Amino acid sequence: MNVTSTPESDEETSRSGSWLVDGGLPSPSYELPSKGDVYPVEPNEDEVWRFPVLDPDWGQVEDDEPSGFRSHTLSMLVNDAPGVLNRVTGVFARRGYNIQSLAVGPAEKPGISRITTVVPGTDESIKKLLTQILKVIDVLKVQDLTHIPFAERELVLIKIAASSKERRDILDVAAIFRAKTVDLSDHSITLEMTGDLEKAAALQRLLQQYGIVEVARTGRVALVRESGVNTKYLGTQELVNKFI
Amino acid sequence: MALPTLHASCNHGASLHTKHIVSGGHDRIYLLESSFLARQSFRCTSGTQRLSAEKPRKSFSRIAWAAAETDIFTATADFQELEIPSFPRPTPPQSFKSRFADDQPRKGSDILVEALEREGVTDVFAYPGGASMEIHQALTRSSSIRNVLCRHEQGEVFAAEGYARASGKVGVCIATSGPGATNLVTGLADAMLDSIPMVAITGQVPRRMIGTDAFQETPIVEVTRSITKHNYLILNIEDIPRLIREAFYLASSGRPGPVLVDIPKDVQQQMSIPDWNQPMKLQGYLERLPKPPQLSQLEQILRLISNSRRPVVYCGGGCMNSSKELREFIDLTGIPVTTTLMGLGVFPSSDERCLHMLGMHGTVYANYSVDKADLLLAFGVRFDDRVTGKLETFASRASIVHIDVDSAEIGKNKQPHVSLCADIQPALVGINHLIKSRNLSFDFSAWMKELNEQKLKWPLNYPKDEDFICPQQAIELLHEVTQGNAIITTGVGQHQMWAAQWFKYDKPRQWLSSGGLGAMGFGLPAALGAAVANPGVPVVDIDGDGSFLMNIQELATIYVEQLPVKIMILNNQHLGMVVQWEDRFYKGNRAHTYLGDPRNEETIFPDFLKMAEGCKVPSARVVKKSDLRKAIELMLETPGPYLLDVIVPHQEHVLPMIPSGGSFNDIITEGDGRRIY
């Protein structure tokens, strides 16, 4: 929010402020965005609700958005008690944040759980969300992993419709992705694959043509990389060129 | 070492029992089970630990506020020690005399009541029901807790709120399961938005019946999750002492708020021997409580003040316990003060540096000062939309300094230039000390002169020559007759805004009103809660006819308890505030805002005098201006409850007004319902 006074706002307030000093009346036809509502009604700002959650690559809310709107990975430690998950997700709902994925499980110490979640938003809005989550009594620690190097994985179980003719092709694809076959029947194959978001999205896109029956994804789990190596940077073209 | 200075965020002006909680919370952090101490300790920063001889160094709960003054200059790092002679000291621990022998098993409800007694609770507002009967039976066995029986659970939760707002202590209300618990919801939301310390205890169906849609069962913990600071469902009788202690601690520390405790009936009936020395399990919360302010941060703020020419202090409900420190700060600096609706009374309105309320219905000069200021000192406020209007133009010329105990509020609506997450009281003590020790002086007389000109040019006014009673005049007269010495509660609407504008509040906790939620029906129950908290102080409920009708059943309570609650109804037969908006923005189209009898518009309907008579509350109606003063005097002189029905016209508008989302230039200063817009 720009709090410095701009020349325009200065001029504007001095012009209409002069009626106050002179004692004249303001012009009655002021244009308000709210047009006299109890709350100011803005034109439809549906940033939060715009991005589809259910696409395999989460509607591509990755790094490239010019507005700074991207998927943020949050990792939090909470007390392991009934209802804690509801409290935390209640904060998301109450403050209007979408959850793209959620993974909960026991953490290092007994009695403490780790919640890893992916939430779309700008840096500003996620910072505000973190301060709200810290108000929940059972939360012990919250960290936004997006801007620091972190390792992320996701487990995908994907069931594809496959007759015996297509089976070979699908198993080839599975071998390339290092996915394992966990179930086989005369009309379907179920594959299990672990990897990061791009790998899961790529697998799903490739298998789309065969007909996906069901997908079950655990959601992203992530931990900070102690080595500090940023794997995203490793994949870029510049670095490759450096070594050629 | 970073001490979570829990006490700092507790209400210091408050009574015995909150200090008891504070010390109880301390002993968990620093020691295991040994008895806590409650003496203030003195520690010098110059490295040598000068401790009072009685305490071993390990077992310590420190308030940590003392040192020689010279140490401030030798201390390069933290500025934690400061001489505060007026700081209330926690009293030594009393050994609590339990009614039961140590090895005597007793019912869960008795354990609960004893836990309340140990927290220093003396008044509760409880309404019995099937699932909370055991608690009521246990309350009859308690000799120190008094129950005020309100006639609706919403009335009881507003009464607990009025009690908490007026005294600073934690308000306690008890309701039964099902409909009793859901009737508490409005009050809990109100306490949440206005940060009022309150503990609500609800009965629940037996544990094995939870989740089966039993009789009078509601999942109240789920329902109130987002409108309480925290809530508990007690599933184990052993947890009762610890959870009640945690509930009171959470309610009163940091940013206060409501806490709900849900106790199933079979837990209430179970027998057990309680362990009173269980430590609280609030590690994450305790670590996140704000630390005492650093010298460097306060110096930065002081530097900004020295460099500014047009500073304004914008203070609110967060300063409720720091009125004295704030007054000293203003005496030292001469900065003009404007308060929000929640902060009325924190700075005396009769002082000439007070610019009264700002915001949507604030005074022109208060909004002018914020608009033209170059430094905005925001103490204990949250930049609510009723105050700021359009965020981009609010204080657009000013550097913003925001001090608040809740870190989530800083930067939520408006990004401050300098922010400090700390309790305002130690922060102000520190700033005052810095100013005094460096003999700084400030001169903002030119700025004050400019503001005084605006005060004279745009005062609050109302039509004075008419023969009808102006509601603003009624409130002004009330202030004159009581000499400002009364606790005022209001409902919500036009009468609330007029009560905020025309009654001058000189002390904190004198003005009780539903700010954040704006719950109609708040006035009468809150007045009765305030009367319970402050026996002997006149309590006046300035109410509207719509708001009064919502909790009118509490007339029975105030008669039975003989509480000296005076009700002054500004009766305009309409839903005033909505009528005002209809006049201004909807061309006067009345949409269900007429509260009188449509078939008989000449008579006053409903007849509040007959309703008061039914509850044996003396009452009177006044229609003529000439009778008003005598009527108000009679109201205040009559002992016990009294109802005064003041008939006012509905065409009056609350002015000035900044429409929502508007900036200072959109301010409306005149007009009423007699014109067509």
Task: Please give the structural blueprint.
The complex is a heterodimer of chains A (244) and B (677).
Chain A (H helix, E strand, L loop, with lengths): L6 H16 L24 H4 L19 E10 L4 H12 L5 E6 L5 E10 L1 H11 L5 E6 L5 E12 L2 H13 L3 E5 L3 E8 L1 H11 L4 E6 L3 E4 L6 H4 L2 H6 L2
Antiparallel strand pairs in A: 1-3, 1-4, 2-3, 5-7, 5-8, 5-9, 6-7
Chain B lengths: L5 H4 L6 H15 L40 H4 L31 E2 H11 L4 E4 L6 H8 L5 E2 L5 H15 L3 E5 L3 H4 L2 H10 L3 E7 L15 H4 L6 E4 L6 H13 L5 E7 H5 L1 E2 L10 H6 L6 H13 L3 E5 L7 H11 L3 E3 L14 E4 L6 H9 L2 E5 L5 H4 L10 E6 L13 E4 L2 H14 L7 H13 L13 H12 L4 E4 L3 H9 L8 E2 L10 H11 L5 E6 H6 L3 H7 L4 E7 L4 H10 L22 H7 L4 E4 L2 H13 L4 E6 L30
Parallel strand pairs in B: 2-3, 2-4, 4-5, 5-7, 6-7, 9-10, 9-12, 10-11, 12-13, 13-14, 15-16, 15-17, 17-18, 18-20, 19-20
Antiparallel strand pairs in B: 1-8
Helix pairs in contact in B: 2-10, 4-5, 4-10, 6-8, 6-21, 13-17, 14-17, 15-18, 19-20, 19-26
Description:
The complex is a heterodimer of chains A (244) and B (677). With 244 residues, chain A is of the alpha+beta class. Chain A is 32% helix and 27% strand. Chain A contains 8 helices and 9 strands. Chain A has helices at residues 7-22, 47-50, 84-95, 123-133, 164-176, 197-207, 231-234, 237-242; strands at residues 70-79, 101-106, 112-121, 139-144, 150-161, 180-184, 188-195, 212-217, 221-224. In chain A, strands 5, 6, 7, 8 and 9 form a 5-stranded antiparallel sheet that branches. Chain A has a 4-stranded antiparallel sheet with strand order 2-3-1-4. In chain A, strand 6 (180-184) and strand 7 form a beta hairpin. Chain A is globular, with a radius of gyration of 25 Å. Chain B is an alpha/beta fold and 677 residues long. Chain B is built from 26 helices and 20 strands. Chain B has a 6-stranded parallel sheet with strand order 3-2-4-5-7-6, sandwiched between helices. Chains A and B meet through helix 1, helix 3, helix 4 and strand 4 of A and helix 12, helix 15 and helix 24 of B.
